[in-house]
């Protein structure tokens, strides 16, 4: 009768150490075929078949794990896009409020200017009266409803007529300015209200996307846990070890992708920066430009960003305890003495576009969905040697990574 323990041990050996190779030289201590307790040839073949099946199952499970990871990444990207869309809507609303305040101020100034013109005109009437001009004409000037009516009723001298013409032109210009300023104030006020409403809608969308991403992350993590447990059982290892192997697989893939991208970047010849070029040359790690001078703020920006490592990602946050991507870069450069909007698209717009080959520590790198900078939805701070500091996404804190940890950036700019 075959020994169960020996048969089980052989199966485990086939599953974890490799496939049995017929004809291989036997170990001197291995029992010869036919020895009691030795598996038969059919049992060995069955064990081999089970090993092959197990390897196939392992492959299936690994593909499912890869799909789960990709699904989690996609959910995170959707949440990041929604968060930056809200940052954009909020920034637009802020700009609209500023424009509305400026327009209201301009309208008040125009009204004051019009009042001055009216007073100056009436002063001219008093002067005409004191100069001995026709009192009836002067009275008409004072009581006239408008310049046109006044001029029609006037019988003043040529001098007074010229003076009235001058005042009339000034009055008409002031009245026109006041009317336009009033209309602009009303329009910008409406724009501000609409922008605020849009921001509220975008905030709700960002909140929903973040909630969806969190739910998806929980579900995907539960699925990954089940898959890893099944994988561990098939491989005959502990769940803890299987999880460590999965983490190592993900890390190895990121490192391989980063190394391949960096190697490709080294082979690209540098070209001059083109402001409208959305796909500039890749940086060449190891051939870094000179570090920024102390006075340009980049060192302070990098130091600030490094001090935030490990803090959580929260969409819409700009510190001090949590950040989203553009919140981190805006606060980092605030420490460097430059003001950047809390919105990745606007950060690119107010900065100087550069090529990737011109990158130096303190510059910004961006990811987008298309050839236009309006598609940007993620930003990071370049710290040199092909590395960035950024607030990646929900579930991942502020971290320092390879610039290629995910995929090659699409845009580059210098604040």
From TrEMBL:
The keyword Signal applies. Belongs to the peptidase C40 family. The keyword Hydrolase applies. It comes from the Bacteria. Residues 263-275 have a biased composition (Low complexity). Residues 1-26 form the signal peptide. Residues 276-287 have a biased composition (Basic and acidic residues). Residues 58-85 form a coiled coil. Gene3D superfamilies: endopeptidase domain like (from Nostoc punctiforme) (3.90.1720.10). This is C40 family peptidase. SUPFAM superfamilies: Cysteine proteinases. InterPro entries: NLP_P60_dom, Papain-like_cys_pep_sf, PG_Endopeptidase_C40. Residues 263-297 are annotated as: Disordered. Keywords: Coiled coil, Hydrolase, Protease, Signal, Thiol protease.
């Amino acid at each position: 009768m075959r020994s169960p323990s020996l048969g089980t041990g052989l199966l485990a050996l086939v599953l974890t150490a490799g496939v049995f190779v017929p004809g291989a030289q036997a170990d001197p201590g291995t029992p010869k075929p036919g020895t009691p307790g030795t598996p038969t040839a059919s049992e060995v073949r069955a064990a081999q078949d089970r090993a092959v099946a197990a390897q196939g199952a392992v492959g299936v499970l690994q593909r499912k794990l890869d799909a789960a990871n990709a699904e989690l990444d996609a959910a995170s990207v959707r949440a990041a896009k929604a968060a930056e869309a809200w940052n954009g809507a909020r920034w637009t609303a802020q700009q609209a409020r500023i424009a509305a305040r400026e327009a209201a101020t301009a309208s008040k100034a125009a009204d004051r200017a019009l009042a001055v013109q009216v007073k100056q005109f009436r002063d001219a009437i008093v002067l005409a009266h004191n100069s001995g001009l026709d009192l009836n004409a002067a009275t008409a000037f004072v009581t006239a409803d408008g310049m046109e009516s006044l001029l029609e009723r006037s019988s003043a001298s040529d001098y007074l007529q010229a003076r009235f013409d001058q005042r009339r032109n000034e009055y008409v210009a002031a009245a026109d300015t006041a009317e336009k300023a009033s209309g602009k104030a009303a329009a910008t006020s409406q724009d501000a209200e609409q922008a605020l409403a849009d921001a509220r809608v975008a905030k709700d969308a960002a909140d929903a996307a973040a909630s969806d991403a969190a739910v998806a992350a929980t579900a995907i993590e539960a699925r990954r846990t089940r898959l890893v447990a099944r994988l561990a059982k098939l491989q005959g290892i502990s769940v803890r070890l299987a999880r460590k192997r999965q983490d190592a697989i993900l890390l190895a893939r990121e490192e391989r992708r980063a190394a391949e991208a960096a190697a490709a970047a080294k082979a690209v010849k540098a070209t001059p920066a083109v402001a409208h070029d959305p796909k500039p040359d890749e940086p060449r790690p190891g051939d870094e430009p000179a570090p920024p001078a102390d006075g340009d703020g980049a060192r302070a920006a990098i130091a600030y960003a490094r001090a935030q490592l490990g803090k959580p990602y929260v969409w819409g946050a700009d510190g001090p305890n949590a950040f989203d991507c553009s919140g981190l870069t805006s606060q980092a450069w605030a420490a460097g003495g430059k003001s950047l909007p809390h919105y990745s698209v606007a950060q690119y717009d107010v900065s100087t576009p550069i090529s990737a080959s011109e990158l130096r520590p303190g510059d910004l790198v961006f990811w987008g969905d298309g050839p236009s900078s309006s598609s940007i939805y993620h930003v990071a701070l370049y710290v040199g040697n092909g590395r960035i500091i950024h607030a990646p996404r929900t579930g991942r804190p502020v971290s320092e990574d390879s610039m290629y940890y995910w995929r090659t950036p699409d845009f580059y700019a210098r604040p």
